[in-house]
Amino acid sequence: MRQNHTLAKLRKGQPAIGLWMHSHSFHLTRIVAAQGLFDWLLVDMEHTPVDLSTASMIFAAIADVSGGACTPLARVAHGSMYHIKHALDAGAQGVIVPMVNTAQEASDVVRFSRYPPLGERGAGGLVPHIGFGITNHVEYVKQANHEILVAIQIETREAVENIESILAVPGIDLVFIGPFDLHISLGLTPTLWSDDPTFRAAITKVIAACKAHGLPYGTISPNADSAAARLADGFTFVSMGTDMIHLLSSITTQYQRLKPNDP
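Above: the chain sequence. Below: its structure as tokens.
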């Protein structure tokens, strides 16, 4: 069974750089995965909902074309058993679960993401373990608890206030900080990052808790410069923007070179 490439790097304290996939294009995702540039590609099933058939094809493409070197991840729409189980059964090798505000919600995320005895996830179908390069279903179930990345997203004032009890829940692999929504929850102007003292105080509190519990932490960044700044801050799970941002930026740049005086 292949290792979860991203999870292995995070456990060693190494940076794992990825890309947020908003297009939900099987072909575009396959092309990006084939370049061998990213440790992970994440399908956003929260803000750009995708049906499970399409998700299954995308997750399989990421795992297969990269030979396991790029991890297919999903940000699910909700921390329910339905959303988590279906994303994992579609072939995601990890989930980021948004809006985790309490220790109980964090516990539910772990419970729905793990097989017994660590959780309650059902044994599932054929698709998930093929992405790990094996056809033996029993062997997959035996090892999956160690290879499935379970991440919680901290993005509210309540979550920051409860961060110590949330991170005391066993089975969490990664803390993902959602900066845009955290700004909103703190009553600030929404943005991906800022030096606002209230925001910085919340970030400092979450990072301190992560370090105390020995957990890696990550966030989304719009580009390489922002990603580099987050890596310098100690984040190890960092996105370098999204597929659509880079695609549209490239198209705009090329057009402006051709017709620079167009509005």
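Residues 5-258 form a domain with the TIM Barrel fold (CATH 3.20.20.60).
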